[in-house]
Design a protein that fits this description.
Elements lengths: L2 H38 L7 E2 L4 E9 L2 E7 L10 H4 L6 H23 L1 H9 L3 E8 L2 E11 H10 L8 H19 L8 E9 L2 E8 L1 H27 L5 H11 L2 E8 L2 E10 L1 H8 L6 H12 L11 E6 L4 E6 L9 E2 L11 H12 L4 H5 L4 E9 L5 E8 L3 H12 L7 E3 L2 E15 L5 E2 L1
Parallel strand pairs: 3-4, 7-8, 12-16
Antiparallel strand pairs: 1-2, 2-3, 4-5, 6-7, 8-9, 10-11, 13-14, 13-16, 15-16, 16-17
Helix pairs in contact: 1-4, 3-4, 3-5, 3-6, 7-10
């Protein structure tokens, strides 16, 4: 090899290796910063957090990860903020995981705003926080969760760069955003000639498939998709304006800059499609208009497409046949109050007449502690789940967390005898709803029962 070739080869190696070395140095620097941040949190080890009543037992950093272990005082799951989260989660364990995850994100985001070193990690690198919550005896985690630096950046963005000093304020914002995602997926067209399906919220954009008939396709496509866009906006506003957090929803849309992408498809010709966008400003502007009623939306679609709307009792699905194999496309629409649906999450939860104090009094007066359990000093918390019908009747009581067969049976008996409740409401109508209630059997020093 000549000197000239050798020089070029050496020069090429230096050019290739220089960026790699720079990247490695940057990664090492980020790791040092992460470990420095963890070292600053050492004084929290062994202390109980007052907000969630969890004790931090471990915290350490490795390359690209931060590991945290919390311990609970017991293995029971109770609602942290029942006035904010009740009815929004299927189980209390699921609720605990959601609240704890967002609490950790809030803490890291708050620290990042106050610390330039941590802010550099959040801004420039990909780190993952792994969190375990264990019982008082340790062992297998009661629940786990993780989040990445992107989640922390999202939290800071959600709060416009200034984290609330009170965690409740931040939790409220996340619950609104969670409700928004759920709400966006529930938007529907109340007409049998068109229906939304395959809705996905991804990368700050809601992707929506709008299926329609051959005639409806040309009508909903004209004027830059005016029909498609108006129908979606009208349906979204009709549902969201009934929410007490409507103004917060608009704030989230504005901060997140959430856009809607509607893909209009002809069910008779799968290859024929068009795409239209609804931008955040259009949603915000549309929100200033008077509330659009369901009847007006139906009238708009019927006026554009013609045909006959489905009877309300049969409006559970939008069904169409297309293609050589007569495939069926289904787009879910909102069920009516006459449906047999039992709701897991509702806008207004069912309530015992007189509230929780009256419920506690009823259980205390009605419950009979099984004698065998008294003799054997058996006590504990039986968790039951049941349905409260739209008439307020309690039915289908089942035990989801057992203590003892005799205590389980007594809990089911007491709950089955409850008087009528104030039924749940969803979208202004009474509906059947699921409800979870713990019944606590506790022995006193006099061997008397309490609840």
């Amino acid at each position: 090899m000549t000197f000239k070739k050798y020089f070029y080869a050496l020069f090429s190696v230096l050019l290739i290796s220089a960026p790699i070395g720079a990247q490695q140095n940057n990664a090492d620097q980020m790791t040092k910063r992460a470990k420095f941040y963890v070292a600053q949190q050492k004084d929290k080890i062994g202390k109980t957090d007052k907000v969630l009543n969890l004790k931090m037992t471990k915290m350490y950093a490795t390359d690209r990860t931060v590991k945290i272990v919390y311990s609970k005082g017991n293995t029971n799951f109770t609602s942290y903020f029942p006035e904010m989260t009740e009815g929004k989660f299927k189980t209390e364990a699921q609720e605990n995981r959601y609240v704890a995850r967002n609490y950790c994100i809030w803490k890291v985001a708050t620290d990042a705003i106050a610390s330039a070193s941590l802010a550099s990690i959040i801004r420039n690198d990909v780190y993952t926080w792994f969190v375990d919550v264990v019982g008082p005896e340790g062992g297998e985690p009661l629940y786990t969760f993780d989040f990445k630096t992107q989640a922390v950046r999202n939290a800071i963005e959600l709060c416009s760069g200034k984290m609330p000093t009170d965690f409740r304020d931040y939790l409220s914002k996340t619950l609104v955003e969670r409700a928004l995602q759920s709400l966006l997926k529930d938007v529907y067209l109340p007409h049998d000639s068109a229906g939304f399906c395959n809705v996905e919220l991804k990368n700050q954009k809601l992707h929506v498939d709008l299926l329609t008939t051959h005639r409806g396709y040309s009508i909903l496509k004209e004027n830059n998709g005016e029909g498609s866009r108006t129908a979606w906006l009208g349906s979204f506003m009709k549902m969201s304006k009934s929410k007490r957090y409507f103004n917060d929803l608009l704030d989230v849309i504005k901060v997140r800059q959430l856009a809607v992408e509607i893909k209009l498809r002809d069910i008779h010709n799968a290859n024929d499609s068009a795409m239209f966008m609804i931008y955040p400003k259009e949603i915000i502007d549309y929100a200033q208009k008077p509330t659009v009623s369901e009847t007006q939306i139906e009238g708009y679609i019927i006026g554009k497409l013609g045909g006959k709307k489905q009877e309300r009792e049969n409006r559970g699905w939008f069904i169409a046949h297309y293609g050589p194999n007569s495939k069926i496309l289904r787009a879910a629409v909102a069920p009516t109050s006459k449906s047999n649906r039992v709701y897991e999450v509702v806008e207004e939860m069912p309530a015992f007449p007189g509230g929780k104090p009256a419920l506690a009094t009823y259980i205390a007066k009605t419950i009979k502690y099984p004698g065998q359990c008294l003799d054997n000093k058996i006590q504990g918390r039986v968790v039951c789940r049941f349905t409260i019908t739209r008439e307020g009747i309690v039915k289908d009581v089942v035990v989801t967390k057992s203590v003892d067969p005799l205590l389980d049976r007594e809990a089911v008996r007491v709950l089955s005898l409850m008087p009528k409740w104030i039924p749940a409401k969803h979208r202004g109508e009474r509906v059947d709803a699921k409800y979870t209630l713990p019944v606590t059997f506790r022995l006193t020093s006099n061997d008397s029962e309490e609840n």
